[in-house]
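Kindly review this record before class:
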Amino acid sequence: MKHSSSIHRDRATWSAYLLLTFLTLQVSLIGPIMPFLRSEMGLTYAEGALHTSAFALGMMVAGFLCAPLEKRVGRKKAMAIGALGLAVGFTIITLATTPIVSIIGAGLMGLIGSMVVVFVPLVLMGIHGDQTDQAISESNFMSYLGALLAPIAVWLFAGTFSWKAVVIISWAFAIFSVLTLRKAHLPSDNQHSTKTSLPLGRSYWAYWTLLGLSVGVEFCFSVWGASFLEKISGLTLDNAIIGSTIFAFCVLCGRLSGIFIIQRTGPWNLAFVSLIIALIGFFIFWLSTPVIFVLIGLGVAGLGVANLFATTLSLALAAEPNNSAKAAARTPITTGLAIIITPLMLGALADHIGLYAGYAIVPVLIVLCIAALILGRYYRVEKHI
Protein backbone atom coordinates (compact mmCIF):
# COMPACT_ATOMS: atom_id res chain seq x y z
CA MET A 1 0.00 0.00 0.00
CA LYS A 2 1.32 3.40 -0.98
CA HIS A 3 0.14 6.62 0.53
CA SER A 4 1.19 10.19 0.21
CA SER A 5 -1.32 11.91 2.47
CA SER A 6 -0.75 12.38 6.17
CA ILE A 7 -2.81 10.30 8.57
CA HIS A 8 -5.17 11.79 11.13
CA ARG A 9 -3.94 11.05 14.65
CA ASP A 10 -6.85 11.13 17.07
CA ARG A 11 -6.83 10.42 20.82
CA ALA A 12 -7.13 6.67 20.23
CA THR A 13 -4.07 6.72 17.96
CA TRP A 14 -1.97 8.59 20.51
CA SER A 15 -3.22 6.23 23.23
CA ALA A 16 -2.03 3.27 21.17
CA TYR A 17 1.36 4.91 20.57
CA LEU A 18 1.70 5.67 24.29
CA LEU A 19 0.87 2.11 25.32
CA LEU A 20 3.43 0.63 22.95
CA THR A 21 6.07 3.10 24.16
CA PHE A 22 5.26 2.12 27.74
CA LEU A 23 5.66 -1.57 26.90
CA THR A 24 9.05 -0.97 25.27
CA LEU A 25 10.17 1.13 28.24
CA GLN A 26 9.28 -1.63 30.68
CA VAL A 27 11.05 -4.35 28.68
CA SER A 28 14.12 -2.13 28.28
CA LEU A 29 14.28 -1.37 32.03
CA ILE A 30 15.15 -5.00 32.81
CA GLY A 31 18.66 -4.62 31.35
CA PRO A 32 19.74 -1.42 33.20
CA ILE A 33 18.45 -2.64 36.59
CA MET A 34 20.09 -6.07 36.24
CA PRO A 35 23.44 -5.04 37.82
CA PHE A 36 21.53 -3.86 40.90
CA LEU A 37 19.49 -7.07 41.06
CA ARG A 38 22.61 -9.19 40.71
CA SER A 39 24.40 -7.22 43.42
CA GLU A 40 21.53 -7.30 45.95
CA MET A 41 20.44 -10.91 45.42
CA GLY A 42 23.74 -12.42 44.28
CA LEU A 43 22.29 -13.55 40.97
CA THR A 44 24.36 -15.53 38.50
CA TYR A 45 24.39 -14.44 34.86
CA ALA A 46 22.10 -17.35 34.07
CA GLU A 47 19.60 -16.28 36.73
CA GLY A 48 19.73 -12.75 35.37
CA ALA A 49 19.06 -14.01 31.86
CA LEU A 50 16.02 -15.93 33.12
CA HIS A 51 14.22 -12.60 33.63
CA THR A 52 14.24 -11.94 29.89
CA SER A 53 13.32 -15.56 29.19
CA ALA A 54 10.40 -15.37 31.65
CA PHE A 55 9.14 -12.20 29.97
CA ALA A 56 9.36 -13.86 26.55
CA LEU A 57 7.54 -16.98 27.79
CA GLY A 58 4.81 -14.78 29.24
CA MET A 59 4.59 -13.00 25.90
CA MET A 60 4.09 -16.30 24.08
CA VAL A 61 1.30 -17.42 26.42
CA ALA A 62 -0.35 -13.99 26.11
CA GLY A 63 -0.94 -14.70 22.44
CA PHE A 64 -3.55 -17.31 23.44
CA LEU A 65 -5.22 -15.28 26.21
CA CYS A 66 -5.98 -12.06 24.34
CA ALA A 67 -9.07 -13.25 22.46
CA PRO A 68 -10.83 -14.73 25.53
CA LEU A 69 -10.02 -11.65 27.63
CA GLU A 70 -11.22 -9.27 24.91
CA LYS A 71 -14.43 -11.26 24.55
CA ARG A 72 -15.03 -11.08 28.30
CA VAL A 73 -14.19 -7.45 29.13
CA GLY A 74 -13.83 -5.66 25.77
CA ARG A 75 -10.75 -4.32 24.01
CA LYS A 76 -10.39 -1.05 25.93
CA LYS A 77 -10.44 -2.73 29.34
CA ALA A 78 -8.11 -5.46 28.10
CA MET A 79 -5.59 -2.83 27.00
CA ALA A 80 -5.90 -1.07 30.37
CA ILE A 81 -5.28 -4.39 32.13
CA GLY A 82 -2.16 -4.81 29.99
CA ALA A 83 -0.84 -1.41 31.05
CA LEU A 84 -1.47 -2.05 34.74
CA GLY A 85 0.03 -5.53 34.42
CA LEU A 86 3.29 -4.01 33.21
CA ALA A 87 3.49 -1.75 36.26
CA VAL A 88 2.51 -4.50 38.72
CA GLY A 89 5.04 -6.93 37.25
CA PHE A 90 7.84 -4.37 37.40
CA THR A 91 6.90 -3.46 40.97
CA ILE A 92 7.27 -7.11 41.95
CA ILE A 93 10.76 -7.12 40.41
CA THR A 94 11.86 -4.02 42.33
CA LEU A 95 10.49 -5.29 45.66
CA ALA A 96 11.73 -8.87 45.27
CA THR A 97 14.24 -10.27 47.74
CA THR A 98 14.67 -13.65 46.05
CA PRO A 99 15.35 -14.54 42.39
CA ILE A 100 12.20 -16.61 42.00
CA VAL A 101 10.00 -13.65 42.94
CA SER A 102 11.72 -11.23 40.54
CA ILE A 103 11.58 -13.81 37.73
CA ILE A 104 7.84 -14.27 38.37
CA GLY A 105 7.46 -10.49 38.13
CA ALA A 106 9.17 -10.49 34.74
CA GLY A 107 6.93 -13.33 33.58
CA LEU A 108 3.85 -11.43 34.74
CA MET A 109 4.98 -8.39 32.73
CA GLY A 110 5.19 -10.57 29.64
CA LEU A 111 1.95 -12.43 30.30
CA ILE A 112 -0.30 -9.43 30.95
CA GLY A 113 1.62 -6.52 29.47
CA SER A 114 2.29 -8.13 26.11
CA MET A 115 -1.41 -7.98 25.30
CA VAL A 116 -0.58 -4.42 24.30
CA VAL A 117 1.43 -5.84 21.36
CA VAL A 118 -1.68 -7.65 20.15
CA PHE A 119 -4.29 -4.94 20.57
CA VAL A 120 -2.34 -1.86 19.41
CA PRO A 121 -2.05 -3.00 15.75
CA LEU A 122 -5.73 -3.94 15.73
CA VAL A 123 -6.71 -0.51 17.05
CA LEU A 124 -4.51 1.22 14.47
CA MET A 125 -5.95 -0.96 11.71
CA GLY A 126 -9.49 -0.13 12.79
CA ILE A 127 -8.78 3.61 12.83
CA HIS A 128 -6.54 4.07 9.81
CA GLY A 129 -7.55 1.35 7.35
CA ASP A 130 -5.41 1.68 4.23
CA GLN A 131 -2.97 3.90 6.12
CA THR A 132 -2.24 1.27 8.77
CA ASP A 133 1.29 0.79 7.39
CA GLN A 134 2.23 4.36 8.26
CA ALA A 135 0.51 4.22 11.66
CA ILE A 136 2.39 1.04 12.62
CA SER A 137 5.63 2.60 11.39
CA GLU A 138 5.00 5.66 13.57
CA SER A 139 4.23 3.49 16.59
CA ASN A 140 7.45 1.58 15.89
CA PHE A 141 9.42 4.83 16.09
CA MET A 142 7.61 6.07 19.19
CA SER A 143 8.14 2.80 21.01
CA TYR A 144 11.90 2.99 20.51
CA LEU A 145 11.94 6.26 22.43
CA GLY A 146 10.90 4.16 25.43
CA ALA A 147 13.93 1.92 24.91
CA LEU A 148 16.23 4.95 24.91
CA LEU A 149 14.54 6.42 28.00
CA ALA A 150 15.06 3.29 30.11
CA PRO A 151 18.82 3.51 30.83
CA ILE A 152 18.59 7.29 31.35
CA ALA A 153 15.79 6.85 33.89
CA VAL A 154 17.70 4.18 35.85
CA TRP A 155 20.86 6.32 35.80
CA LEU A 156 19.00 9.38 37.09
CA PHE A 157 17.09 7.60 39.86
CA ALA A 158 20.03 5.45 40.95
CA GLY A 159 22.23 8.53 41.26
CA THR A 160 19.61 10.68 43.00
CA PHE A 161 17.43 8.39 45.12
CA SER A 162 17.53 4.64 44.56
CA TRP A 163 17.30 2.47 41.49
CA LYS A 164 14.06 1.06 42.95
CA ALA A 165 12.48 4.52 42.65
CA VAL A 166 12.35 4.06 38.87
CA VAL A 167 9.10 2.21 39.56
CA ILE A 168 7.57 5.70 39.91
CA ILE A 169 7.99 6.16 36.15
CA SER A 170 6.28 2.83 35.53
CA TRP A 171 3.20 3.78 37.52
CA ALA A 172 3.15 7.29 36.06
CA PHE A 173 3.13 5.81 32.54
CA ALA A 174 0.55 3.19 33.51
CA ILE A 175 -1.87 5.67 35.09
CA PHE A 176 -1.47 8.21 32.28
CA SER A 177 -1.95 5.46 29.67
CA VAL A 178 -5.14 4.22 31.33
CA LEU A 179 -6.56 7.74 31.72
CA THR A 180 -5.77 8.59 28.10
CA LEU A 181 -7.25 5.33 26.93
CA ARG A 182 -10.38 5.89 29.00
CA LYS A 183 -11.22 9.06 27.06
CA ALA A 184 -10.35 7.59 23.68
CA HIS A 185 -12.97 6.30 21.26
CA LEU A 186 -11.71 2.96 19.99
CA PRO A 187 -13.05 1.37 16.83
CA SER A 188 -15.54 -1.42 17.40
CA ASP A 189 -14.02 -4.66 18.59
CA ASN A 190 -15.87 -6.35 15.75
CA GLN A 191 -14.85 -3.94 13.01
CA HIS A 192 -12.38 -6.57 11.88
CA SER A 193 -13.39 -10.18 12.02
CA THR A 194 -12.46 -12.10 15.16
CA LYS A 195 -13.27 -15.53 13.77
CA THR A 196 -10.45 -17.23 15.66
CA SER A 197 -11.59 -20.67 14.43
CA LEU A 198 -10.58 -19.88 10.87
CA PRO A 199 -7.11 -21.20 9.92
CA LEU A 200 -4.44 -18.69 9.03
CA GLY A 201 -3.09 -18.89 5.49
CA ARG A 202 0.38 -19.78 4.22
CA SER A 203 1.18 -16.16 3.37
CA TYR A 204 0.56 -15.18 6.98
CA TRP A 205 2.76 -17.95 8.35
CA ALA A 206 5.58 -16.95 6.00
CA TYR A 207 5.42 -13.38 7.34
CA TRP A 208 5.02 -14.74 10.89
CA THR A 209 8.28 -16.64 10.42
CA LEU A 210 9.91 -13.54 8.97
CA LEU A 211 8.82 -11.54 12.03
CA GLY A 212 10.57 -13.94 14.39
CA LEU A 213 13.71 -14.19 12.25
CA SER A 214 14.01 -10.39 11.95
CA VAL A 215 13.63 -9.94 15.72
CA GLY A 216 16.35 -12.55 16.10
CA VAL A 217 18.69 -10.59 13.83
CA GLU A 218 18.10 -7.40 15.82
CA PHE A 219 18.76 -9.15 19.14
CA CYS A 220 22.02 -10.63 17.83
CA PHE A 221 23.33 -7.11 17.34
CA SER A 222 21.77 -5.50 20.41
CA VAL A 223 22.73 -8.27 22.86
CA TRP A 224 26.18 -9.24 21.56
CA GLY A 225 27.32 -6.14 19.65
CA ALA A 226 29.25 -4.64 22.59
CA SER A 227 30.92 -7.99 23.28
CA PHE A 228 32.05 -8.18 19.63
CA LEU A 229 33.58 -4.71 19.85
CA GLU A 230 35.41 -5.67 23.04
CA LYS A 231 36.55 -9.22 22.24
CA ILE A 232 37.10 -9.00 18.48
CA SER A 233 37.82 -5.32 17.78
CA GLY A 234 39.88 -4.86 20.94
CA LEU A 235 38.06 -1.93 22.52
CA THR A 236 37.93 -1.49 26.29
CA LEU A 237 34.64 -2.50 27.88
CA ASP A 238 33.57 1.12 28.45
CA ASN A 239 34.42 2.11 24.87
CA ALA A 240 32.72 -1.00 23.51
CA ILE A 241 29.50 -0.15 25.35
CA ILE A 242 29.65 3.44 24.09
CA GLY A 243 30.49 2.28 20.57
CA SER A 244 27.58 -0.16 20.51
CA THR A 245 25.13 2.72 20.99
CA ILE A 246 25.63 3.57 17.31
CA PHE A 247 23.36 0.61 16.58
CA ALA A 248 20.54 2.04 18.72
CA PHE A 249 21.05 5.53 17.27
CA CYS A 250 20.84 4.25 13.70
CA VAL A 251 17.78 2.14 14.51
CA LEU A 252 16.09 5.29 15.78
CA CYS A 253 17.07 7.23 12.63
CA GLY A 254 15.94 4.34 10.44
CA ARG A 255 12.55 4.14 12.11
CA LEU A 256 12.05 7.88 11.78
CA SER A 257 12.86 7.80 8.06
CA GLY A 258 10.73 4.69 7.64
CA ILE A 259 7.61 6.69 8.56
CA PHE A 260 8.00 8.69 5.35
CA ILE A 261 9.51 6.01 3.12
CA ILE A 262 6.75 3.45 3.71
CA GLN A 263 4.18 5.90 2.31
CA ARG A 264 5.94 5.78 -1.05
CA THR A 265 7.24 2.21 -1.23
CA GLY A 266 4.76 0.12 0.76
CA PRO A 267 5.86 -2.40 3.42
CA TRP A 268 7.08 -5.22 1.15
CA ASN A 269 9.56 -3.09 -0.81
CA LEU A 270 10.81 -1.38 2.35
CA ALA A 271 11.30 -4.75 4.05
CA PHE A 272 13.26 -6.13 1.09
CA VAL A 273 15.56 -3.09 0.85
CA SER A 274 15.99 -3.12 4.64
CA LEU A 275 17.15 -6.73 4.59
CA ILE A 276 19.71 -5.99 1.85
CA ILE A 277 21.00 -3.01 3.86
CA ALA A 278 21.21 -5.16 7.00
CA LEU A 279 23.18 -7.81 5.09
CA ILE A 280 25.63 -5.24 3.69
CA GLY A 281 26.02 -3.67 7.13
CA PHE A 282 26.72 -7.06 8.69
CA PHE A 283 29.55 -7.88 6.28
CA ILE A 284 31.13 -4.45 6.80
CA PHE A 285 30.86 -5.02 10.56
CA TRP A 286 32.10 -8.62 10.44
CA LEU A 287 34.90 -8.43 7.89
CA SER A 288 36.46 -5.05 8.74
CA THR A 289 39.58 -4.67 10.86
CA PRO A 290 39.76 -0.89 11.51
CA VAL A 291 37.37 -0.08 14.36
CA ILE A 292 35.86 2.85 12.46
CA PHE A 293 34.64 0.51 9.72
CA VAL A 294 33.35 -1.99 12.27
CA LEU A 295 31.29 0.80 13.83
CA ILE A 296 30.09 1.98 10.42
CA GLY A 297 28.98 -1.57 9.63
CA LEU A 298 27.14 -1.80 12.94
CA GLY A 299 25.37 1.48 12.18
CA VAL A 300 24.40 0.37 8.66
CA ALA A 301 23.05 -2.87 10.11
CA GLY A 302 20.99 -0.77 12.54
CA LEU A 303 19.50 1.18 9.65
CA GLY A 304 18.67 -2.13 7.99
CA VAL A 305 16.86 -3.79 10.89
CA ALA A 306 15.11 -0.58 11.98
CA ASN A 307 11.90 -1.07 9.98
CA LEU A 308 11.73 -4.85 9.77
CA PHE A 309 9.30 -5.28 12.67
CA ALA A 310 6.86 -2.62 11.47
CA THR A 311 6.88 -3.71 7.83
CA THR A 312 6.61 -7.41 8.62
CA LEU A 313 3.78 -6.86 11.10
CA SER A 314 1.93 -4.81 8.47
CA LEU A 315 2.40 -7.57 5.90
CA ALA A 316 1.27 -10.29 8.29
CA LEU A 317 -1.94 -8.46 9.24
CA ALA A 318 -2.63 -7.51 5.63
CA ALA A 319 -2.38 -11.19 4.68
CA GLU A 320 -5.39 -11.93 6.93
CA PRO A 321 -7.74 -8.92 6.61
CA ASN A 322 -10.76 -11.02 7.64
CA ASN A 323 -9.02 -12.76 10.53
CA SER A 324 -6.87 -9.95 11.88
CA ALA A 325 -7.55 -10.59 15.58
CA LYS A 326 -6.20 -14.14 15.42
CA ALA A 327 -3.32 -12.99 13.21
CA ALA A 328 -2.31 -10.31 15.71
CA ALA A 329 -2.70 -12.69 18.66
CA ARG A 330 -0.16 -15.12 17.20
CA THR A 331 2.61 -12.54 16.67
CA PRO A 332 3.87 -12.52 20.30
CA ILE A 333 4.62 -16.23 19.97
CA THR A 334 7.19 -15.79 17.22
CA THR A 335 8.77 -12.70 18.83
CA GLY A 336 8.94 -14.49 22.18
CA LEU A 337 10.64 -17.49 20.59
CA ALA A 338 13.15 -15.21 18.88
CA ILE A 339 13.97 -13.37 22.12
CA ILE A 340 14.60 -16.67 23.91
CA ILE A 341 16.35 -18.71 21.24
CA THR A 342 18.46 -16.41 19.07
CA PRO A 343 20.74 -14.71 21.65
CA LEU A 344 21.20 -18.08 23.40
CA MET A 345 22.06 -19.73 20.09
CA LEU A 346 24.69 -17.13 19.26
CA GLY A 347 26.04 -17.33 22.82
CA ALA A 348 26.30 -21.12 22.63
CA LEU A 349 28.10 -20.91 19.28
CA ALA A 350 30.47 -18.31 20.75
CA ASP A 351 31.30 -20.67 23.62
CA HIS A 352 32.17 -23.49 21.23
CA ILE A 353 33.68 -21.85 18.14
CA GLY A 354 34.29 -18.26 19.25
CA LEU A 355 32.21 -15.09 19.00
CA TYR A 356 33.59 -14.11 15.58
CA ALA A 357 32.67 -17.43 13.97
CA GLY A 358 29.41 -17.58 15.92
CA TYR A 359 28.29 -14.34 14.31
CA ALA A 360 28.11 -16.21 10.99
CA ILE A 361 24.59 -17.15 12.07
CA VAL A 362 23.44 -13.59 11.32
CA PRO A 363 23.74 -13.67 7.50
CA VAL A 364 22.04 -17.06 7.54
CA LEU A 365 19.12 -15.54 9.44
CA ILE A 366 18.97 -12.59 7.02
CA VAL A 367 18.92 -14.88 3.98
CA LEU A 368 16.12 -16.88 5.62
CA CYS A 369 14.30 -13.57 6.17
CA ILE A 370 14.56 -12.77 2.46
CA ALA A 371 13.27 -16.23 1.57
CA ALA A 372 10.32 -15.87 3.95
CA LEU A 373 9.53 -12.41 2.54
CA ILE A 374 9.46 -13.74 -1.02
CA LEU A 375 7.39 -16.77 0.02
CA GLY A 376 4.89 -14.49 1.75
CA ARG A 377 4.30 -12.55 -1.44
CA TYR A 378 4.18 -15.71 -3.55
CA TYR A 379 1.54 -17.33 -1.34
CA ARG A 380 -0.44 -14.08 -1.23
CA VAL A 381 -0.51 -13.85 -5.04
CA GLU A 382 -1.29 -17.55 -5.34
CA LYS A 383 -4.25 -17.12 -2.95
CA HIS A 384 -5.81 -14.49 -5.22
CA ILE A 385 -5.31 -16.35 -8.50
Notes: Residues 196-385 form a domain with the Growth Hormone; Chain: A; fold (CATH 1.20.1250.20).
